[in-house]
Amino acid sequence: MDRITCEIHRATARIDDKIAFLHRVRAIADTYETHIILFDADLMAGEKHVRTALEHAYRSYAAGTPIANSLEMEVLLYAAGTRQCLVATNFGIHQGENRLYTCICPPAAGARKELAAVMTFVEEEFGGIDEAKAERLMEAFGITRDELEAVGEDRIAELVLERVALLDVYR
């Protein structure tokens, strides 16, 4: 795993059974010899957050110093900026309606087509951070109101990316 090469798609999915859904996604990944990583778009500070988590996780695997036993979990740990797997799983799928960043690493012809059986790919952007999402991000990443006021309300995504990068420091 020298360099990250991923397709990142936006999708929606109704998930009634998380375990069955993940088994289906894993089977598709295995068929195409790729990794499929799913992020809850409502906990991500945009696509740059997704890319940053992917890059850090790939780097830790390339260096032989991953925290997790799987690349998928390693990416979620970086997305969450934590070493705690239970916390990181919150950044993946959940029961009910999901807005997802769906990453196929490396890209694999046919994987997206098979994933379309369990999710609907969309063109809409998920990157905007409204007040409700800002509150979720502040809670998830321990960002205080004072900290946000010091850098500016419009820079919350940068604070999230800083938390992702700090995971390397806290190893």
Automatic annotation (TrEMBL):
<protein>
    <recommendedName>
        <fullName>Kinase binding protein CGI-121</fullName>
    </recommendedName>
</protein>
<dbReference type="InterPro" id="IPR036504">
    <property type="entry name" value="CGI121/TPRKB_sf"/>
</dbReference>
<dbReference type="Pfam" id="PF08617">
    <property type="entry name" value="CGI-121"/>
</dbReference>
<dbReference type="InterPro" id="IPR013926">
    <property type="entry name" value="CGI121/TPRKB"/>
</dbReference>
<comment type="similarity">
    <text>Belongs to the CGI121/TPRKB family.</text>
</comment>
<dbReference type="InterPro" id="IPR016799">
    <property type="entry name" value="UCP022062"/>
</dbReference>
